[in-house]
Amino acid sequence: MGGYEYDFSVISQNMDIFIEGALKTLEISAIALLLAIPLGIIIGMGRISRNRFIRILSSAYVEVMRGVPLLVLLIWIFFVLGQFLKLGSYWASIIGLAVFTAAFIAEIVRSGIQGVPRGQMEAARSSGMTYWQAMRLIVLPQAFRRVLPPLASQFIMLIKDSSLISVIGATELTLNAKNLVATSMRSIEVWTFIGFVYFAMTFTLSMIIRAIEQKLLARENS
């Protein structure tokens, strides 16, 4: 790096830009997760449905979403689907992140439901409950406790994945960083700080998830 002089004053001088970008990243990620969870639950339940058509359709969705790179999906939604639905970069980003994340949530939900002992469903059915009553009142509440930590971990992955939405012009932390690098020519300083910001957000969430897991484990053992 001969001749390069580091100047981290660009960070303190533009702190408002970083804060705004971090908050927008968390906002987009949170909304995407709120949309992905119900979609993922529906698809996850479809994966174990007794209806063969629903099971195949749900499985196809999961395999397609897991097989297509998120960046390609975001570009397609923004430039193709967005032209028909008049989506801006903000909602194209949210929809792209949501439908992508839903596939992984579906697998989390599927494994959570299948992790509940089959005897729970059989006992509920023998007591007169319908399949959906047993699923809603007996199986899903138990599965929810199992999948809560993995769902929270998925939120961390979503925050990191959201850095890709800068490609379609969505205003968030990474795009703000790109714009600042273009005007200040301080790429090393800016991107180093951006790395620390992402780490701070994800590490904080990791500590929260760990606390939740310990509390759930203590409750199960009590």
Automatic annotation (TrEMBL):
Keywords, alphabetical: Amino-acid transport, Cell membrane, Membrane, Transmembrane, Transmembrane helix, Transport
Domain (ABC transmembrane type-1) ranges: 22-209
Protein topology in the membrane: Multi-pass membrane protein
Transmembrane segments: 28-46, 67-84, 90-109, 190-212
Pfam families xref list: BPD_transp_1
Location in or out of the cell: Cell membrane
Similarity field: Belongs to the binding-protein-dependent transport system permease family. HisMQ subfamily.
Protein name: Nickel transporter
Organism of this sequence: Sporosarcina ureae
Taxonomic placement: Bacteria, Bacillati, Bacillota, Bacilli, Bacillales
